[in-house]
Design goal:
A: alpha/beta, Rossmann fold, 2 domains, 10 strands, B: mainly alpha, ABC transporter involved in vitamin B12 uptake, BtuC, two-stranded antiparallel sheet
């Protein structure tokens, strides 16, 4: 196996006395789609925040293309090709949808302040390229019709698509999506899964936090399961689904949870993980 | 829906600039008096400063120290030309370089501060610079100021009339507007506006937020410095008083009245506030002969409050907002999602004045472990994961 594109080793993050991430290690190969799953509060978003430089790790390393990116500011990590989206939408509300996506092109464009101020030919040409690239991405995710709307006027689901479009416009090497399907309609979700699959086939690497197990089963090559900040399982989606620890983490294994489960038998709660053995295993 | 499509917005800007240039060209021919010309020159200088402040506002920053940079530009250019014998045409850019260096030195520590503290730091710089103007007597002439500043000259002939300076000042002001428009509509401007929208979101897309904040701060200072240098050679006498705190406040009022995120606000804000100032000064004694000057300031305050109530985004955008208000879609949907637990959050709808503290990632992330500790009771209810379509709806294989 070739060297991993992204390697996380012994990653730990403490907040005072609380350990949000504890000794988490995994690797992501180029062109792979790795899903991160786990119950609420398992540390998934903290993991993203540490990998993308928004939080410093308490211990451990994050290596990207063989080099440590610990301690780099988020903008440098993004510039290196690791682009993320946010679970709680972060769109530039006062800008139009198109402009939001054009901001995404910042990473691979390079005209400076002077060229911009004087509207030099390079800046004009770049603006044309950026607008065309942004429109193409909007068309890809299905937002072309709303290009001129103010971003804050979009419904939540569309804002999430906008964030994904903006991240795609950055032409990332690794795209980290934090609950990309949250708030999306079933149809939007299906479309998104198709888009992700296509981009992955074109060589983009994905790291996806997702609660929607259908999405995970369909799109992910491998799954890492976190619980209480620790990695409790890793493997192909179908394997992880059958893992006793994963089932326990999702269904609860302490007395409270068992009692709660007892009060609401079987059908009330959708037993997502165990019941999905028949899902198509991604190849 | 589309208030301001990028393409038509740009061409509308260009049309506006062309109309402005044409209008300015004929003003000297129709201006009723030298007083009006002088007033228009002052508006031109204030426009340059205010456009600089609005560039700063584009990224969500506010400065209460612009009068200091205005003053460093004025004193710098005056001293270079008068005491070192530089041509004013060289002294003015020289003074701008001096202002740029000053702003950079101020920005290095000040930009590390969170919003409100940054504003206070610029306020402090303004006070310090003004004190230095008064106290560095041998250099600056102290409170009595500098006299006999060389005028601008073209082809050996000194410019002396308001009319001649009108063309110089407004050429620079137009250039300031064009540069600001170019910047705000292209890569740099998008990055600055993204920073206003969300610093976290901007950083996540590779935008070096501290670097952009520094650059736009220095640029806004350069705008003020250029206006100050022009002022020195136009008026030919400078003293510390026009560069005191009140002037910084005045510039900020112009920027806010004009609209902190729209470059046209620089022009409209400078013109409106200068006109208001003149009207209040001239008419108040006539209407209320018995009352003193402090009531002028009060009237002034009332008008500003009214403008802020009715045109909260400034008068340059006032028309657009009014139209939107009449259409009834002023309020946008909330972008916040309730109950997002483990997040580095970035407010996406903050405005220049309502920005969140900058030291945020650690603090806000603190919220997450606290909420996380109470998570177990939620677990049994996790079946309702967001937007899970029923089994069988996603049978399509994306790789097929």
């Amino acid at each position: 196996m070739t060297a991993p594109l992204l390697a996380v080793k012994g990653l730990t993050r403490r907040f005072g006395g609380v350990t949000a991430l504890e000794d988490v290690s995994f690797e992501v190969a180029a062109g792979e789609n790795l899903a991160i799953i786990g119950p609420n509060g398992a540390g998934k978003t903290t993991l993203f925040n540490v990998v993308t430089g928004f939080l410093a790790p308490s211990a451990g390393t994050v290596r990207y293309r063989g080099r440590s990116i610990n301690g780099l500011p988020p903008s440098r990590i993004a510039a290196a090709g690791l682009i993320r989206t946010f679970q709680n939408l972060v769109v530039f509300g006062e800008m139009t949808v198109l402009e939001n996506v054009m901001v995404g092109c910042h990473r691979w464009t390079g005209t400076g302040m002077l060229a911009n101020a004087l509207a030099l030919p390079a800046a004009r040409r770049e603006d044309g390229e950026v607008a065309a690239a942004a429109r193409a991405v909007l068309a890809l995710v299905g937002l072309a019709g709303e290009a001129q709307a103010a971003a804050r006027h979009l419904p939540v689901g569309r804002q999430r698509l906008l964030e994904i479009a903006r991240a795609l416009a950055a032409r990332p090497d690794v795209l980290l999506l934090d609950e990309p399907a949250a708030g999306l309609t079933a149809e939007e979700t299906r479309h998104l899964v198709r888009v992700i699959g296509r981009l992955r086939d074109e060589g983009m690497t994905f790291l996806v936090i997702e609660h929607n197990m259908d999405v995970v089963m369909e799109a992910a090559d491998r799954v890492v399961v976190l619980d209480y900040g620790k990695k409790i399982a890793e493997g192909r989606p179908a394997e992880v689904q059958r893992d006793a620890r994963v089932i326990a983490a999702y269904l609860g294994d302490d007395a409270d949870a068992a009692a709660a489960a007892g009060e609401r038998p079987g059908g009330a709660r959708r037993p997502q993980v165990p019941a999905r053995g028949d899902a198509p295993a991604s190849t | 829906m589309a208030d301001c499509p990028a393409a038509t917005g740009v061409s509308r800007d260009l049309a506006g600039l062309a109309v402005l240039a044409a209008g300015l060209a004929i003003v000297p021919a129709v201006a009723p008096s030298a007083y009006v010309m002088a007033l228009l020159n002052i508006v031109g200088l204030y426009t340059i400063v205010t456009v600089g402040l609005i560039l700063l506002g584009t990224s969500g920053q506010v400065s209460l120290g612009q009068a200091a940079f205005y003053g460093v530009g004025a004193y710098g250019s005056a001293l270079l030309a008068r005491d070192l014998g530089w041509s004013p045409w060289l002294a003015m850019p020289g003074a701008v370089v001096l202002v740029v260096a000053t702003a950079y030195a101020v920005g290095l520590p000040a930009l590390r501060l969170a919003d409100v503290f940054f504003v206070l730091a610029t306020l402090g710089v303004g006070i310090i610079v003004n004190v230095l103007m008064i106290q560095l007597d041998p250099l600056t002439g102290g409170a009595s100021g500098l006299r006999d500043i060389p005028p601008l000259a073209i082809g050996g002939r000194p410019l002396t009339t308001d009319r001649e300076y009108f063309y110089v000042i407004w050429t620079v002001a137009l250039a300031a507007l064009v540069v600001a428009r170019n910047l705000t509509t292209r890569r740099t401007g998008r990055a600055l506006r993204a920073i206003l929208g969300s610093e976290i979101g901007a950083a996540a897309l590779g935008i070096d937020v501290p670097r952009y904040r520094m650059r736009v701060f220095v640029l806004s200072a350069a705008y003020a410095g250029a206006a100050g240098a022009l002022y020195a050679h136009y008026v030919r006498f400078i003293s510390p008083s026009p560069f005191a705190l009140y002037a910084s406040l005045f510039f900020l009022i112009m920027a806010v009245v004009g609209g902190l995120t729209n470059i046209w606000g620089g022009l409209f804000g400078a013109a409106a506030v200068t006109a208001l100032d003149q009207i209040v000064r001239a008419q108040m004694p006539r209407l209320f002969p018995r009352i003193g000057g402090e009531y002028q300031t009060a009237i002034y305050g009332i008008v500003l409050i009214l403008i802020m109530i009715f045109f909260p985004s400034g008068i340059a955008r006032g028309g657009i907002d009014l139209r939107r208000l009449l259409r009834g879609d002023a309020a946008g949907p909330a972008t916040d999602r309730p109950a997002a637990a483990d997040v580095v959050s970035g407010g996406s709808r903050k405005r220049a004045f309502g920005r969140r503290p900058r030291v945020r990632s650690e603090e806000e992330a603190w919220a997450s472990p606290l909420t996380e500790t109470s998570r177990r009771p939620q677990v049994p209810a996790r079946g309702d994961a967001p937007a899970s379509p029923p089994v069988g709806t996603t049978t399509e294989n994306p790789h097929a």
